[in-house]
Amino acid sequence: MARSRVARQALGRRVRRSGVDDRRHGHRAVSRAGGRRARSGAAAPRRAPVRGRDRGPGPRRARAHLGAHLGAGLQRSRGRRAPRAGGDEAPLSEERVQELAALTWEEARDLDRPHTVAILPVGAIEAHGPHLPLGTDTIIAIAMARAGAQRLASEGLGAVLLPPISYAPAPFARGFAGTLSIAASALRDLLLETARELTRLEFRALGIANVHLDPAQRAALTEATERAAMEHLLPVACPDLTRRTVAARLSDEFRSGACHAGRFEGSILLAERPELVREDIRNALPPNPASLSTAIRAGLTSFEQAGGPRAYFGWPADATEEEGRATVETLGAILAEAVHETLALRGTT
Predict the structure, then answer these.
(1) Where are the transmembrane segments (predicted)?
(2) CATH number of the domain bearing residue 157
(3) What is the pLDDT of residues 239-292, one digit of tens each?
(4) Structural domain harbouring 71
């Protein structure tokens, strides 16, 4: 009897301790019958802090990582409209603009590849002032690719969006944290290998959307395009935005050469990824009219030498979402026209 009484007392102490421990962790004590005790007016259990930090009483919006935003940029190709030549907008057939990475191999097999253009966004991871993300050029390239693909689809061609290439030669920005600058030959070889694979898969053409205008990047794109033609691969179209006839369709800031993380690029980011723009910083930035194109012609090799100690040029505070949307449509038209011109030159229209 004494032994059983001691055992019952020990059991009671363990149950009471368990209840205390449960309450410390925000749980109600569980009865031996397996149910939870009902307390009228009891406060809801507190959640444990995330990774040991108390987030505070109010909700806090987390900034999604850039990879999620870049993927979302491709997803936004669905449901958009591309303007026709006469100005009217026509809804696009969703199946005519697709993402290669989202397809299964059987769906890729069933694409009408001989009548489908593959569109490749090529960007960079590079300093873009204190107000825009390092992936700015990739975000803009995705927007250009999407708009170009939609225009091609509205004109009767199929289009498939390829995953973006974000690694690029960016020697002008190497002095700024976060910039990832690879050899121009590495990008050239990757583009050429991609063209070889698309040729093997019998796609109609490859269109490259690029707004990263570092001289090393432009050289890599030009060499890859020329070698693809020499190897008789599929037609490769890569419009050069610095050509006078092309630049004439873009903004005054773009043509001035004082265009890096300024009004031109900032407007597109406001239209495409406004949550990534540090608005309080952007609105306070003074203009920097130093021309990068002039600096390049003078043989300078860095943003610092060119007069951009904070890695921006132009008028960032003047950026607007409306200008960004219009610019994306223009970039898409430039890309689509380059694809048609390349097909015509190769006699495959």
Answers:
(1) none
(2) 3.40.50.10310
(3) 999 999 999 999 999 999 999 999 999 999 999 999 999 999 999 999 999 999
(4) 66-243+329-345
